Amino acid sequence: MSRSMTRALLLSASMIVCGSTAGWSAEAPAAKAVPPAPKAFPAPAAKAPLPTMKAPVAAAARAAAPKPVDPLAGIPADAKPTEMDVPAALGGAEITVYLNDLAMVRERRGFRLPTAFTRLTFPGVAATLQPETALFQVIKGPPLRFVEQSFDFNLLTPARLLEKAVGREVTLITSNPNTGAETSSRALVLSASDGLVVQMNGRIHSNPPGRVVYDGLPPGMHAAPSLTMTVAGSPGQDIDSELSYLTSGLSWHADYVLQYDPDAGRMDLNAWASITNTTGVDFRDAKLKLVAGQVSREMGRPQPIQMKAPMAFEARAAAGPMQDGVAEESLVGNHIYTMPRPTTLAANETKQLALLSAQDVVVKRENVVRSQPVVFQQDIRTRPQTTAVGIELSFKNDAAAKLGAPLPAGTMRVYSVDQQGAPQFIGESRVEHGAEGTDVVLQAGRDYDLPVLREQLNFVRASDNIILSVWRVTVKNTSAKPVAVKVIEPIPGAWEITKESHSHTKSDAGSAEWALQIAPKSQVVLEYNVKSTF
Length: 534
What we know:
By secondary structure, this protein is mostly beta strands. Helices cover about 5% and strands about 50% of the residues.
């Protein structure tokens, strides 16, 4: 193929991609025009326009589109912002409280920018606010440009007022001790460190008598913890905003009250959410959500997480014995309890809200003797141990047992009535999070009608990693009823029962278990030899 014919083909193809020859004639000199290709080599048929054909159009559209105006444009670098307090929240704040001294606060505030450059002050925020987590969003209104943010948590005190008044005039008021008449004088504060020094009537006075009256709060000083944000934006327009932040000083835990009927083997269960507020501020008519679970945190820099609509499918309502109106849902491994009505959390207050309740729950009582793994590695032949059988109450967390809801971690306190019908405290036990369908076991104290004597009869360290020991466990029943007692020995290492007076079962890899039946006013003596390899 000739060189001129090749150039013709390339030019023809480029004209198809880029547009007609008319669009390019002004840029290509006539002297360099290339004649059409021979008929034997016709140009390929035009295809659908490629995406690159729209590039010049898109670029032109972008160039023609109005560029966003920077709200800071036109504001001098040394301009002083106008001070403005943002009014209190519109309605109650939405507060999500976690178990580990953490809460997320979301509140709506409405305001109107007085000037294009304004320092917004948000009073009434928590004194324990973590400023690096603050998130401010304009829900409705013109956009804002954020310049800086600060958090003032050093509250108003007489000493701080004097410090801020240095270089300013104040009024000194003295009272005549005989007549009670008051006299006021203007004074310039010169120093407030280690005493008050003022200039008054051309003279310097140190610690003058009387009381100090200020003309107002010094700039930048607030009577309560305050978050400030310097912003630029269009003045004179209404703005509906949302302020979110994480704070310590708010936490919750579950407290359970169990009314136990030992004869019927049943109980009534009531759970309370105990919420403590030590943030230094009141939250009035707050909408509460309580999260049961552990959220991952980087110490010092936690960040609030915004829940977006596409994630909503991860939350599902859960049926169960929740208190009327309390909604429970599962979300990414945690459980969220939404309280049905707003409540006020006053500063330095602990408030309890009903969480769930269940009546006539089937309870199983077991009498259990448990040892500690460490005793199997020590020679304690001269130190017999006396104790009493432990009382363990257990119930199934399912619908058949009239429960069937995730139970947040907390303290379960057990009460039972005496012969006169008066409730008596039996014991309490800390329980961890109980998923639906699991067994909940709590220690309810000890039964002193069932004393226990544990003795080590022999101890031999056969080698560096083998220990041979002989044990005797004596359980007495001083009551008038037969009882069943479990002896559970948590033996460390690889172990083998080489001899025993009663047959055992291996309840798990680290435990040997004996089931003893003890008649009234009698005792059972369990003896066994164990070989432990470490």
